[in-house]
Amino acid sequence: MSARAGAATAVPGGAQAAVEHYLGEHTRSAGSLPGAGTAWLRELREQGIERFADLGFPSTREERWRYTSVAPIAAQRLRVALPAPVPAPEALAPFLFPGLDAHRLVFVNGRYAAELSAPGSLPDGVHLDSLAQVLAAAPERARPALSGLALRTGFDALHQAFLADGVWLELAAGVALARPVHLVHLGVGAAEPALANLRTVISLGARAEARVIESFGSLGSGAGLTTAVTTVVLAEGAALEHFKLQEEAATVDHVARVEVRQGRDSRYTSHSVSLGGGITRNDITSTLEGEGAECTLNGLYMAAGRQHVDFHTTIDHAEPRGTSRELYKGILGGRARGVFNGRILVQPGAQKTDSQQSSQNLLLSREAEVDTKPELEIYADDVKCSHGATVGQLDADMLFYLRSRGIDHGTAQGFLTRGFAQDVIDRMSIDAVRERLERLVVTHVPGPESAQVSP
């Protein structure tokens, strides 16, 4: 389903100038990256830059990037982000959740900031650390997790070529982590547009349980690109609730990928909220490798001005009796554009699969656009699957009703928009997260000048 689908602008995938720039960046920075003296890691990074030389940046000629032109990103000559001065602790306050008691790790321009972090006391069987520290202390421990990433796009290849730091979270079998883990990623403006890479590795043993919050924000208005890759492995009966809040500056682009592998009877729940950034792309894939696994993907995206937000999801039912639920809601104003492509794959033999998917979108101006494409691909006959997509506007009668009672247009629109988003927010289990998001939704509603309802 497409609303005001505009003509796509192709990006030359192998633009030689971009390739030469990043080859030079790799030569300049490779020796200073964490673990540079480890042979397998050095080879991994070299494979990444070689793959980027082959792929370049994605083009709108590719089906999965049809509605998302990355020409503005390809035109930049990003420099690898160097460790930045650590900001004062009070600068962190806007990105925290009031009242939340969490194990906190903070990263500035993609590098661990111990001065701002508060990991706290961890129970036995929990290993929470920065990836750079794991690479320094026990590099072989990280090798399997870092070596298995398929380099499908130029962004994947760039991420691997300049892999520097991130998060390592590992829970032993049977461990339930009572307090959530909060990972705060801050970008600090630099003189030149900067490339920041963040790798998060989460591994939960059998019947282990955890909640992880990833926050992405900006200090200042410096331009740049964040690439974030999160890999999750859930053993039998493990459960992870995974939150992501992206509210970077409009001058920062954000390309992220989440890869989840689920064992028997495991549960993965994702809440992904995108409010900031210039061009934002989120790819989420979960493979239900064990019988009886459950996957829930919830998403909310709000965009105004000329922001562009793209969610691509894949839920792969590889074994019988899997359950998946998916709900994504988009709110767009100004000349913003949203994209949702959700694919449900039911493999041969994955009988008794139960899957539901819904994409709902709200356009607050005549110039806003959304392209939504739910997909079902089924190769089993005893399944229960459904999907649907809607694109609409605020109810003019409801706006009139509120305005007639003395409520100004912006406030009335805020009430109705919050009501539309509330269904996604209410699904989150952490009170402090829900409360902050309720406030953010209201502050991110586009103003009345870009929110006229079409007759």
Structural summary, described in words:
With 455 residues, this protein is an alpha/beta fold. The chain has one domain. Helix content is 22%, strand content 38%. It has nine helices and 21 strands. The strands form two sheets. Strands 1, 2, 5, 6, 8, 10, 12, 14, 16, 18 and 20 form an eleven-stranded mixed beta sheet that branches. A ten-stranded mixed beta sheet has the order 4-3-7-9-11-13-15-17-19-21, covered by helices on one side. Strand 3 and strand 4 form a beta hairpin. Helix 2 packs antiparallel against helix 6. The longest helix is centred in the N-terminal third of the chain and has 17 residues. The radius of gyration is 22 Å and the shape is globular. The N terminus and C terminus are likely disordered.
Give the overall form: globular
Structural class: alpha/beta
Tally of extended strands? 21
Termini separation comes to: 21 Å
Q: Over the alpha carbons, how many angstroms does the gyration radius reach?
A: 22 Å
Count every helix, treating DSSP H or I runs of 4 or more residues as helices: 9
- Tally of distinct domains: 1
- Largest sheet descriptor: 11 strands, mixed
pLDDT < 50 runs, ≥5 residues = 2-14, 447-455
Assess the beta-strand content as a share of residues: 35-45%
> What proportion of the residues is helical, as a percent range?
10-25%
* SSE order, one letter for each helix or strand: EHHHEEEEHHHEEEEEEEEEEEEEEEEHHH
Mean pLDDT: 90
